[in-house]
Amino acid sequence: MNIGKTAAINDGINDINSHSAFFIQNKGILDYKGLAVYILTQFFHVLQMIIKYTNFSDGIHSFHLSESVKNLGLEELFFGNADVECRMDKSPHQIVLNCDLTVHSKMICDRCAKDLETKLTNHFQISYIFSRDLHETDEYNVKYLSPEDDKINIRNDVYEYAELALPMKRLCKDDCKGLCPHCGINLNEEQCNCKIEITHDVWEPLKQLKGKFNN
Ligand SMILES: [Zn+2]
Ligand SMILES: [Zn+2]
User: Fold this and answer.
1) Is residue 96 part of a domain?
2) What's the CA gap between 215 and 45, in Å, rounded?
3) Centroid of ligand 1 to alpha carbon of 111 (angstroms)
4) Residue 138: its pLDDT value, please?
5) Same domain, 65 and 153
6) Cα 196 to averaged position of ligand 2 atoms, centre (Å)
7) One domain, residues 110 and 134
8) Fewer beta carbons within 10 angstroms: which end of the chain, N or C?
9) Which ligand is nearest to the CA of 113?
10) Residues 124 and 90 reside in one and the same domain
11) Model pTM score
């Protein structure tokens, strides 16, 4: 799995060498700071949720992407980093990207309001088709790349799939007893002496109706 990655990094290094030679020849003075940043981004050529696919050879490559949920705009319901294990299959006509997303959510239990921290995972696949004309597509998870493009940004996809991973029912445990409606104590932790009255009476509407006729 790592063979592809090594090959791609080597491509990146060749790329850096040709560019640093370019800097020396054309500027005379080497801009060290600029070059350091350039080398870093080129060497890893996957920066946050951006994949510079032009640095990858055709074939299968596996790599890891990570970005803080804050940067992704997901800090309200999540904490830490969003991590994505990517498997990229690049061919002359398309790129198929398979991503396994892991995020950590912070929510509160719908019944007892206790804090919940849960590890959530989601998987998504996106096909990017190289095309000279940009098509509008209704097909979900199919995108087009023009010859001018050189990067894929999966930021929005990560955002979307992190939100989709959130459960509909947010419970600390399936049988959470919730809070007492009278005194508010957490019934999972202690019991109270409040009398829960059963007010629901199926005959109540009929009794009211009877009352109305009698008046
Ligand atoms: Zn609960
Ligand atoms: Zn109570």
Assistant:
1) yes
2) 84
3) 5
4) 74
5) yes
6) 8
7) yes
8) C
9) 1
10) yes
11) 0.66
